[in-house]
Each structure stands twice: as structure tokens, then as C-alpha cells.
Amino acid sequence: MTANSSEPPDAAPIMILGRAFWGARTLISAVELGVFTELAQGELTLAQLRGRLGLHERGARDFLDALVALGMLHRSGGLYSNTPATAYYLDRAKPTYIGDLMELADDRGYRSWALLTAALRTGRAQSRETAGGEDLFKSMYTDEEAMRRFLRGMTGLTLPTAKAIAAAFPFEKYSTFLDVGGARGALAVQLAEAHPHLTGGVFDLPQVRPLFAEYVTEHGLTHRLSFYSGDFLTGPLPQAEILVMGHVLHDWDLETKRLLLRKAYEALPERGALIVYETLIDDDRATSAPGLLMSLNMLVDTQGGFDFTGAECVEWMLEAGFTSPSVTQLPALDGMVVGIKGTR
């Protein structure tokens, strides 16, 4: 608006953002009701969806049309259908399903985010699980059902990034890898399938082993992928030519981030590689809303975690001894930082 303009600025962007939870709750209700799973079988009318989902007449049409307006459904000739993205990620029958993450975020995360102002004033976690000083993952992993839902959702979310990493890094120069904090093995399976010469596995807490075994067995890769139990905070990392840390560093404070990078450097052989991938914040900290909001999520959910820029990760890698770290933007929200152990 210029100094002489008589028109006030548009309030719509402010109101839309201020009420963004309306859209989020609409999507999560659709996930809970199984809207996208029902539509995976084919197009349905309003009446058919009402009957299958058990929706009351009041609100049903607005609910489904809101999903259309939000870009989560298509509607043509009175028939509703999934979009390519919701068909891929929100059909419970698919291995790419990420709806569990949304329901967990609603169940656990919304309460924490409601206390964001308190977190900003105190610097302390606000989640029910971590406000008292408990570690988020150790707390979550004591609940087997919550652990399964979280790791299933992370599998679906990781697959596109895993495929991109498999294509973006010169794995042909290496023969072994280990995914640190790799959970069920989504990345490990993708790397093994894309590069048949590789062997490797996952290093994670003991509770994760049965879920890893199930997933790897489903993909017929038990002869090439192994599980290593341990806690990367309390002991050394297993050795491999490539170590991967995906969505691991952001859970921890700066001191722990640096500790994990040093441990990775010590575990790698000469010319070994460390791959870090995260929802990186842009270096100017001005355009990457997903990365900055994820960092606020770490504020309310963890004791010291925060997200970071690619440049910051490069700096920490150099401090740990890695040479010439490089940053690569991956599809969707993630970025990859690679460091090599070797002489300068």
C-alpha cells in the first residue's frame, strides 16, 4: 500500500493463517473417517459417502466440498474422488500411508502447540511426554501402538526422499551403509533395491527391531540388511562406508548435534561419507516456512532440538573434520548435506 492509497491492505492472508487449524482439523477428520480409503475403490456421490462414512446430513456436503476447495479431493459431475497425492499418501491400504502421523500430531502435538507462547517465554518443552524432562522417543516407544503408528507414518513420508537420495548420491563407489536412527528401514530398503551391490542396515533402539524385521522380510532383503541395537547417545556408532542421519540431528541441542557428527566421523573409514537429510531452513531464514515451523515443533516437543540451515550443517561438519560438505535440495521438503572423511 502506498502512502497515498485509500485502500486498506488485504486482511484475508492474515485471517486464513490465523484460522489455518480449521483446514488442518478438516483434513485430520477426513483421515480419521477413512474418506480417502473409501475413495480408493472409486468415485462416490455425496449420498454414497455419507452412508459409508456414517455422516449426518448437516455438514456432510460442506465437509466434502471443503476438502475439494483445500485441494484434497476432486469433484466432477457430482462424484468425489481422491487427488493423486491423497490416493498415494492417505489410503490406509498402501505402504505409503502417512495418515498415522497426522492423527498422532493431532493427539499429541496440538496440545503442545497450544502452549507455544509458554514455550517461547520459557524455552522449555510443553508436550505431555517431555515437559518433565523425559526423552520424546523413549517415551513414545514405551507405547507399542504409538510407536507402530509413528514409524509406519514415517515410512510413507520417507519413501520419496529415500528414492531421491538413492538417485542423487554415487553409491556405486561404496559397498556398505548404515542408517542411524533408521527405524523400520524405509531408506535402507530403497537403497538396497536401487543398488544391488550394497549391504547395510539400521542402527536404532532395541524396541524397533521387530518392526524392522517385519518390513525387511516383506521386501525379501533379510540377506542384505541387518539391524543393530543401541543408543547413539551413549555408545559408538557401528562402522560402515556410508552413514546416514535422516531427521535425527534436529531432535537435539547443538552440543548433541556436534557429538553425533563427531561420532559419525570416528566410525567412518577414510573417504567414507556421511549423509544428513532434514527439512532444511533456507540460508536467509526467510522463505522456508516448513523448516522454521518444524523447528518450532522441536521447541514444544523436545528438550533442546531445533532445525537448521544447510550452511549451518556444513559448518558443523567442517568442525567435526569432514571435507568439502555439499548441500543438495531434494524433492518435497527435505535437503541433503554430504560430508566426506578424508584429507583436505
UniProtKB/TrEMBL annotation:
Pfam family, one: Dimerisation
Record-level GO BP terms: methylation
Domain O-methyltransferase dimerisation: 20-91
Tree of life domain: Bacteria
Domain O-methyltransferase C-terminal: 113-322
GO molecular function, one term: methyltransferase activity
Transmembrane spans: none
Name of protein: Methyltransferase
